[in-house]
Amino acid sequence: MASISVLTTISNNFSIYFGIPTLIGGVIGDVFNIFVFLSLKTFRENSCAFYLTAMSFLNIGQLMLNLFPRIMNLWFAIDWSVASLAYCKARAFFFQVCSLTSFTCMCLATIDQFLVTCSHPRWQRFSSIKFAYRFFIIAMIIWLLHGIPTLLYENLIISSVTGNYTCAISNAVFQTYYNYGYTVILISSLPVIVTAIFGLLAYRNVTQLAYRTVPLVRRELDKQLTVMVLVQVVFNFFVLIPYIIINVTNLGVNASRNSYSYAQLQLARNITTSLYYWYFAVSVDR
Predict the structure, then answer these.
(1) What is the Cα–Cα distance from 116 to 125, expressed in whole angstroms?
(2) Distance between CA atoms of residues 206 and 186, nearest Å
(3) Torsion on CA atoms 15, 237, 209, 42, rounded to nearest 10
(4) Quick check: 260 pLDDT over 80?
């Protein structure tokens, strides 16, 4: 049986050597994604493509703001968040805004494909670039306001384990909300549920497009975008579900930091967290 130190080493090395290609490939993939959607007029005027483009910008921010500092901390023991309180608060704030807005864009893109492939014109009218701009701005404002408690309660505190300063939440009530409301629901369970439901509805609508009087060009564009979104939905399901399971398990287990069970749980958390970043790294048009 592997010792605690061996499990810790495996856990850190996995996060580093799995995270580096995820970071590099993710940034390149999202940049390519943005280039494709902005270079074609058809996509620039499409609401679903707008959501996917915005999501790619946010994903780059997420990878650079969180995955890159995570790798630097594990590899070189460089933790920039403890060097400055302003950076500690700003990183946590923008991490939340980028992740929540990215997931919102994914949900809106899936809902948009359901609306645009609907047989009722009443629902189709909500799938427009005008509404897409409005929905995105509203979502951004909501998540910016949502992040205000993070700016208040994210502080440099002395760790009871190491005795060193660490960037962490200093309010117990907000920490409970962060663990359950934010981590388990907002950035994992809720996006999986919403995209799965509307993805299935969009797929059902697409299978019926051949029986409707729809221009050929629009029909093919709707099919292409729906396939992109559905592939992302399926991928997200398999990436996010392990992350949800391990986080719920971690919240329900009270293991000592020096125990073998805790080391096993940390290894599982690092593996699922590394997989979780694939959501931000995988380009939808590949």
Answers:
(1) 8
(2) 28
(3) -30
(4) no
**Residue 47 · residue 132 · CB < 8 Å:** yes
Quote the radius of gyration of the chain (alpha carbons, Å): 21
Q: Report the distance separating Cα 135 and Cα 80, nearest Å.
A: 34
CA angle, corner 11, sides to 8 and 17, nearest 5?
135
- Which CATH code, of 3.90.1150.10, 1.10.287.130, 1.20.1070.10, 3.30.450.40, is assigned to 4-279? 1.20.1070.10
Domain assignments of the chain as residue spans, ordered by start: 4-279
Identify any residues that bridge with 169 across adjacent strands, giving them in sequence order.
Answer: 154
d(CA 281, CA 67): 10
Q: Please report, as a single letter, which amino acid is at residue 177.
A: Y
What's the helix, strand, coil split of the chain in %, to 5? Answer: 80, 5, 15
Other Cβ atoms within 10 Å of 257 Cβ, number: 11
* pLDDT tens figures, 167-220: 899 999 999 999 999 999 999 999 999 999 999 998 888 877 655 555 545 556
More confident residue, 196 or 283: 196
What is the Cα–Cα distance from 119 to 213, expressed in whole angstroms? 10
Average pLDDT of the residues in 109-125: 86
Q: Are 38 and 44 in contact (CB under 8 A)?
A: yes
